[in-house]
Amino acid sequence: MNPPALKRTPLFDAHRRAQARLVDFGGWEMPLHYGSQIEEHHRVRRAAGVFDVSHMLAIDLAGSEARTFLGLLLANDVAKLAVPGKALYSCMLNQDGGVLDDLIVYWRGEDRFRMVVNAGTADKDLAWIERQRDRLASGVGLQPRRDLAMLAVQGPQARERVWQVRPPLRAQSEALPAFQAREQGPLFVARTGYTGEDGLEVMVPAADAAALWNDLLGAGVAPCGLGARDTLRLEAGMNLYGQDMDESTTPFEAGLGWTVALAGTRDFIGRAALAQRTPRWNLLGLVLRSRGVLRSHQPVRGARGAGEITSGTFSPTLGCSIALARLPTAAMPGEMVEVQVRDRWLPVQVVNYPFVRRGKSLLPD
Amino acid sequence: MTVPADLKYAESHEWARLEADGTVSVGITDHAQDRLGDLVFVEAPKVGQTVAKGKECGVVESVKAAADLYAPVSGEVVAVNQELAGNPEKINQDAYAAWMFRVRPSNPAELNALLDAGGYQKVVAADQH
Question: Is A253 helix (H, G, I), strand (E, B) or coil?
Fold first, then answer.
């Protein structure tokens, strides 16, 4: 039996031309790096880098019941989307309060919304959303937008580079506040990202993706792959679905309690179950100040009890290893615990996250 | 992948070079650095330490994985490349210039038992997956 071929985005040929090291990421053939993931990381923190994120899925919703439907579907409250273009970060829960995915939803004005979901969960999410729509709000239209490509341009110079290669976008998006979007025809531009830096995420018709990519590279924006994406997001304290949380964990066990809007009486899928579940752990940061690299699944032990790392890596900006870990709920930032790295238990400090902001360390001295 | 003809190789992806003064310089191959990705830590053996052919004598760690270093020949470590501690990326940039440590070999015949470039190329070919 032959496994199905890996999926490719509209930028696959561009990645090959840029000498990408390609890997299987959730069934997609994606660039891990283009030479050095650490160099790419530094380019994003210091200047500008571009990521192909076309493997993620935009799903458009429309209809007079769309807002109410999203109010039932998502743990965060779309009532907060009071201005067209505004974005909301939310978990989508199952009936047990477990996280099906984390996503961003935009209000596009009137009765139109756009959700952006993770690549590895896109099929599962779409099937779930369709089932809930059929059950709760059958008039809502759903359209997965596989016709769109998505580029994330990130870094202190990112927005300038985008405007340099697409001058009409400057007027469109210069005044755009963080976490908001603007549209013009098929072009959708949002001041969002997964790196902790300023920047824009741009959705374009698939046929226009390569030209935009090439123009950005021509303007000096560095192509960046999944390796840099992971070190950047972890420094910025952003969760990765499937690693930091999954269907068996609640948002409160994943450091995402702040995204669950419990004020008022809004019912949403999973709300009742959350009220019945006591968090088994908290997600906190760890820093290893000596040599070594923290990695997923390494055991943690300490005075408060045992835990486990969910995501770990070497932080290029900090020059040491950092991690997110499930720790006993009594664990406090500042305490020391130990992590089993290969065959030794190494001392690490419990810290809050994010670890880096605007390219500077947030760690306690 | 470069495999210089004038070096000897271990199947565990270390290279060895006999120097004019009879010591043997050791590093990891271009194939090894490529497989590991960006290196972030290098733990070489210490000066004065005795290493044994085929036995672990250090660690190289990249963002994605850690790998043990194996001594290709036995002997006493007489020098360690201090540059690499703070700049492990030099190994990624030029694996054959970035010697990691030097050994005064206790058994010079061991060098001949290592693979030549052709033999190591076969190891690399088998390792591509």
Answer: helix
